[in-house]
C-alpha cells in the first residue's frame, strides 16, 4: 500500500512539474510575441520557434490559390465557374483579414489557403463570411495542449479571438473525405456559431433567423442518437448541442447522403441555414 502511495505521489509531482514548465514556456512566448494574441489555455507541447504572418502580406497569385484548391478541395472542384470565382474572391478577403501563427520552423502556403477555405466552404451562401471576431489563426504541426478547464490534447479549438488547428489532422481529414471527419470544418462551424450568437457583432441575420430549425430538430436527433443502434454521430458529437452542431456541419459536407437519408429534416434545415 505504501509503495502504491509513493508511486501515485511521484506521478502527481511529474504532472505538476510538466504544468509548471508549460506555463513558463507560454509566458515566455507571450512576452516575445505580443501580437500573437495567444490565449491562456492553449500551449504547444514541444518548444519551437513560431512564424508569424499578416494575411494581407501573403500576396498569393490567383493561380497559386486555384492550384492548391483544385488539388485538395473536393468541394471547390465541384463548384460551377461562377461559384469558383466567388469562392476565390472571398478566400482572398478572408486571408487578408487574419494573422497566422505557425508553431513550427517551416510553413507552407497550403496552410492559410486550405484552413481559410474551410471557413469559406461553410459560408459561401451567406452574406457575412469574414469572422472578424477571430483575428488570429494558430497552426500547430500536430496535437497541442489545452490546460483549461482540464489538461488535454487537442486537434482543434476555438477560444478568445483565436482559431487553433493541428495541421497533421487537418490535412489527413481533407485527404480522406470518406471518413466523414474534418477538423477544419468542425472548428469553423464553432467559430460561425460564436460570431453570430455570442459576440453580437457582424451578425448574419440569415444565419440567426434560420438557426431555430436546427435547435428544434437537432435536440430530438441528439437524443435519438444516444439510443443503442444509432451510430451516425460520434460520442464526442453527442456531448452537447455545440458539438452536435459542429459535427452536423462535418456530416453535411463529408457524408451528405448518409445525413439526408437518416435525418432528412435536419439535412434540409442545415441546407436552409447555410443557403447551400
In brief, what are we looking at here?
The protein is α/β, with parallel strands linked by helices and 276 residues long. Helix content is 55%, strand content 11%. It contains eleven helices and eight strands.
Can you characterise this structure?
It contains eleven helices and eight strands. Helices cover 55% and strands 11% of the residues. About 10% of the residues have low confidence. Helix 9 packs across helix 10. The longest helix has 31 residues. The strands form two sheets. The protein has a five-stranded mixed beta sheet. The protein has a three-stranded antiparallel beta sheet with strand order 1-5-6. It has 276 residues and is α/β, with parallel strands linked by helices.
Summary tags:
alpha/beta; 11 helices; 276 residues; three-stranded antiparallel sheet; five-stranded mixed sheet; single chain
- Tell me the strand order in the biggest sheet: 2-3-4-8-7
* Spatial separation of the terminal alpha carbons: 62 Å
Q: How would a crystallographer describe the biggest sheet?
A: 5 strands, mixed
Cα-atom Rg, whole angstroms? 20 Å
Give the overall silhouette. globular
Secondary-structure element order, as H and E? HEEHHHEHEEEEEHHHHHH
DSSP, total strands = 8
Rounded mean pLDDT score: 86
Q: Structural class of the helix and strand makeup?
A: alpha/beta
Low-confidence stretches: 10-36
Number of helices: 11
User: Helical amount among residues, as a percent range?
Assistant: 55-70%
| Percent strand | 5-15%
Amino acid at each position: 500500500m505504501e509503495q502504491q502511495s509513493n508511486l501515485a505521489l511521484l506521478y502527481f509531482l511529474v504532472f505538476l512539474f510538466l504544468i509548471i514548465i508549460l506555463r513558463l514556456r507560454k509566458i515566455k512566448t507571450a512576452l516575445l510575441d505580443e501580437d500573437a494574441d495567444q490565449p491562456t489555455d492553449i500551449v504547444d507541447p514541444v518548444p519551437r520557434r513560431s512564424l508569424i504572418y499578416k494575411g494581407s502580406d501573403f500576396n498569393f497569385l490567383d493561380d497559386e490559390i486555384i492550384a492548391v484548391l483544385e488539388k485538395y478541395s473536393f468541394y471547390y472542384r465541384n463548384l460551377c465557374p461562377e461559384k469558383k470565382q466567388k469562392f476565390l474572391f472571398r478566400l482572398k478577403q478572408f486571408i487578408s483579414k487574419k494573422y497566422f501563427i505557425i508553431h513550427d520552423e517551416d510553413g507552407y502556403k497550403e496552410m492559410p489557403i486550405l484552413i481559410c477555405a474551410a471557413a469559406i466552404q461553410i459560408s459561401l451562401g451567406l452574406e457575412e463570411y469574414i469572422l472578424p471576431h477571430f483575428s488570429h489563426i494558430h497552426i500547430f504541426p500536430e496535437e497541442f495542449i489545452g490546460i483549461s478547464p482540464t489538461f488535454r490534447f487537442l486537434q482543434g479549438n476555438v477560444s478568445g479571438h483565436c482559431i487553433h488547428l493541428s495541421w497533421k489532422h487537418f490535412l489527413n481529414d481533407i485527404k480522406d473525405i470518406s471518413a466523414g471527419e474534418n477538423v477544419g470544418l468542425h472548428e469553423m462551424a464553432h467559430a460561425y456559431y460564436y460570431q453570430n450568437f455570442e459576440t453580437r457583432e457582424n451578425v448574419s441575420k440569415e444565419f440567426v433567423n434560420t438557426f431555430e430549425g436546427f435547435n428544434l430538430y437537432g435536440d430530438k436527433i441528439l437524443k435519438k442518437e444516444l439510443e443503442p443502434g444509432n451510430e451516425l454521430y460520434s460520442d464526442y458529437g453527442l456531448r452537447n448541442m455545440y458539438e452536435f452542431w459542429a459535427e452536423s456541419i462535418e456530416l453535411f459536407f463529408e457524408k451528405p447522403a448518409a445525413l439526408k437519408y437518416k435525418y432528412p429534416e435536419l439535412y434540409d434545415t442545415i441546407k436552409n441555414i447555410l443557403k447551400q
